[in-house]
Amino acid sequence: MTEPGMDLLMWARGTGFQIAIGVFLFGLVLRLIEIFALRRKADVAPPKGDAVSGGLRTIFTRFVPAPGFAALLPAQIIGGVIFHFGLLFIVFFFVPHIAVIKDTFGVSWPGISSAVINALTVLTVAILVVLLVVRLKHPVRRYLSDFQDYFIWALTVVPLVSGYMAFNAVGPYTIVLAIHVLSAELLIALIPFTRLTHAFTWVSSRYYNGAFAGRKGTMS
Amino acid sequence: MTAVSVERGVEALRQQVDASVASYMSSCIHCGLCAQACLFYTETGDPKYTPQRKLEPLYRVWKNDFTLLGRLASMAGLGCKITDEFLDEWEELIYDSCTLCGRCTMACPVGIDITAVVRKTREGMVASGHVPEGLIGAATRAVEGGGPMGDLLPALKAVIRRSEAATGIPVEVDKEGAEYMVILSAQETVGFPEIVEAYSKIFKQAGVTWTISTKAFEGTNVGIQIGSRDIARTLVQRVVDAAEELKVKAVIAPECGHAYTALRWEGPNLIGRTYEFDVVHITELVDQLIKEGRIKFKGKHKSKITYHDPCQTNRRGGMLNPPRAILAEISENLVEMEDAGLWNWCCGGGGGVGANERADELKTKVFMRKKRQLDGVKPDELVTSCANCRNIIEEALDHYEIDLPVLGLTEMVAEYMETDEIEEPAADKAVKGEDQ
């Protein structure tokens, strides 16, 4: 008799993974075509500064919060920054994740110690909980939030929690790992079809913003 | 204006969608940080004023018509609804509570140019007939009468006569071949006519030839404020035609933020070509004349002043340094307000809000942000380089019973400028002549 959940795990690691990556790549290409095929009309007003350097500048300067904002909204801003870096390190620098990437795409890089990733996962999940509380409590965030905002929060938190549980052998290992893999696959597949698309389009949005300012000889 | 309808509005919005808009709409994660950048939120505490909400009309059009999932949803009758009621509700957000100041654009972590989106959205609001009465009135007067306050040519002629009498320097109108053509904002012609005297003195001293066209002297472009490309194009074309007819080297944009945006940045795109002349803002030109040594100063302003950066010339126009370089020459006690410069707070009346009577109460309320900035430095006088800001600030100071003179930068330059000869006012000359 196979271990409970083993079939599910095997499917998730095989067919499920292929479907998720396929949907993700299809969706991403579709979305990028939808955006960039629209193009932009050439601006015929004589420039006062350089658009390209302005755009590139804003891609990087926007990593730093607007002046005074961190003091006004510390949980949201500091939490937001740590969350994004935490997620980045967990997804791309956990050794088993690098192995999956190597198997799929043939590229790899050195990982970070599992103990560090383990601690980072606790921190990242804790921050996600704080960010959820902020979303529920802060009048502006609550006002702006719709179903999708809460849905993508759940979509992000489940792989983190199940991954932590699997690594630390909390609960039935195979089932927990299957949930981890499946939830991560759902997250990956839905990136292009939800607000998670910002994981890619932040670059172009910042670029356009900075380029328009740069052209006018100002900064953004 | 042509017939308006929701369909026309949606079509006008559709035409605004390009790669930048699609990128912005794909990036917003409802973080709400932009609220903290917007004085309409910070001064009211009402989350409905969060700049992000102002993306919604264009977001709906983009989602319905420019994404696969949105198109499928629309085909199934599940697309985002855009109705008269919806646009009615958003009219206040798009017009009354946005001055197009650009702070939210600076603050958005994913880089959404929210200000540009609001400007684009106004095109749809105009086409669907959801525009405040005050702006419709100003736009009608601008198209039919020459300016947002109607036909100001008689007023301009009176201003020129008074300037000539006061300075003894003739103002040559409609002079072909002059280097520069000056345009004024209606606010200057009516409220701050001394600006013409300042121009006369500065340009005489600097050896600059200039003229004013009686066909196109109005710089204010209500088309930009209301969000109508058609109106904006008509108003820009008047200036372009006059400037090219007079064969001037450049048109001097006045101390008016949106006039500068209209002529310098939007104008060429509205008429579909570059001009045969340059556009230079008066502040840029004065800064250049100082740097070339063509203007020198005889003294400095002693009392404590602070400088209010107009949003459209500074944050949205690229003129952060010229006013400060000028003030360094003519003031010995300039104190900067908190957030001055790139992050300065709007006066609360730009982007057509000042012409929208319905927004008066809100506009006055959000001035509290400027008041707090001023309270922080307690200046003796406030200097700015936008007649609209100046008017809005003066009105609000009156409302809050604050005694703070508001000065125009160009007029200050004229006051402290060294002159080669002391001009006898023409009126005095005339009197003396009669005596002889």
Written description of the protein model:
The complex is a heterodimer of chains A (220) and B (436). With 220 residues, chain A is mainly α. Chain A is built from ten helices and no strands. Chain A has a single domain (6-215), classed as Fumarate Reductase Cytochrome B subunit, CATH 1.20.950. Chain B is mainly alpha-helical and 436 residues long. Chain B folds into three domains: 6-131, Fumarate Reductase Iron-sulfur Protein, Chain B, domain 2 (Orthogonal Bundle); 141-291, Rossmann fold, CATH 3.40.50; 305-416, Rossmann fold (3-Layer(aba) Sandwich), CATH 3.40.50. Chain B contains 23 helices and seven strands. Chains A and B meet through helix 1, helix 4, helix 7 and helix 10 of A and helix 2, helix 3, helix 8 and helix 16 of B.
Structure characteristics:
heterodimer; A: 220 residues; 10 helices; B: 436 residues; mainly alpha; Fumarate Reductase Iron-sulfur Protein, Chain B, domain 2; Rossmann fold; 3 domains; globular; disordered C terminus
Task: List the topology elements.
The complex is a heterodimer of chains A (220) and B (436).
Chain A: H1 6-36, H2 51-61, H3 69-72, H4 74-93, H5 95-105, H6 114-137, H7 139-144, H8 147-167, H9 173-190, H10 198-215
Helix pairs in contact in A: 1-9, 2-10, 4-6, 6-8, 8-9
Chain B: H1 6-14, H2 19-27, H3 34-37, H4 39-42, H5 56-66, H6 68-75, H7 84-96, H8 103-107, H9 114-128, H10 133-145, H11 153-167, E1 180-182, H12 186-191, H13 194-206, E2 210-211, H14 222-226, H15 229-246, E3 250-253, H16 257-271, E4 278-281, H17 282-291, E5 305-308, H18 322-330, H19 360-366, H20 368-377, E6 381-384, H21 387-399, E7 406-408, H22 409-416, H23 426-435
Parallel strand pairs in B: 1-2, 1-3, 3-4, 5-6, 6-7
Helix pairs in contact in B: 1-9, 5-6, 7-9, 11-13, 13-22, 15-16, 17-18, 18-22
